[in-house]
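This section describes the prediction task in plain terms. A model, or a person checking by hand, is given the sequence of a single protein chain and must write out its three-dimensional structure as a string of tokens. No templates, partner chains or ligands are provided. The sample shown here is typical of the held-out split.
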Amino acid sequence: MNQICVVIATYNFFEMTRKCVELVNGNAGIGVDILVVDDGSSAKYIDPTINVIRIEKNSGATNAVNQGILWCGDRYKYIMLMDNDIIPEPDFIKHLYEHMESDAVTGIASSILYKRIDNKIHYGLFSMDLIDGTQAVVYECSDDLAAMYCDWLPLACCLVRTKMIRYIGILDRRFLHYCTDSDYCIRANLDRWNVAVIPKSRVEHLHQTTMRQVKPDTIRDQQFFIDKLAGNKLNEIFGRLPFYWGKNIWGRLVLENYAKELPNE
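The expected answer:
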């Protein structure tokens, strides 16, 4: 058995998924196993050459990825999370693996995701806000760059250390599609695991192919993430229970939003 299992969630778009599987086999640069999670597609995804599990009813991207992680369990040292609309370049997993092996405190290592817009390549490095997913983008990017450590990045094509999963758990199932990435990476950072972009590893991301079909409500997940960050559920408990009854000491969490002047690019 290989040290890495690649988890690809799919909801319809089978041809795209099959192409993704083919490219993973051809471009991983290292031996991998592959698991496709069929998240309640209109027909069953079938491929006897790889592992396939099926969720009978469409459950959302977060749950589909979680089911893949749970299926892998402790059998693998690393789990590669991949969207099915990824077109990887040669050795893309090998470069991530080599970094993870050299840095034992990196819990998540991501490929650089690029897309083509108006015949120009946009390289997305990492994310620059919490809920909208605005990316730091450059138009030239040398693969000689060192690993870039960040607060969070998309989980569309990343290698995750199984040891870290044992500590921080799987993705928060309460998110359906969005904000899972920022939440999970922040949880990793808070537990003192590095989150890194590896410039040598590059993939083209066709971006949100499935989401355009599902048309999910982004506000639901974003609002839940804000509530989670603000500790709104904790505030309900603080309203009922003091920190210290004998001295009548109570607590309250407050999230304040404000604008500030940003430096010119």
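For orientation: The chain is about 30% helix and 25% strand.
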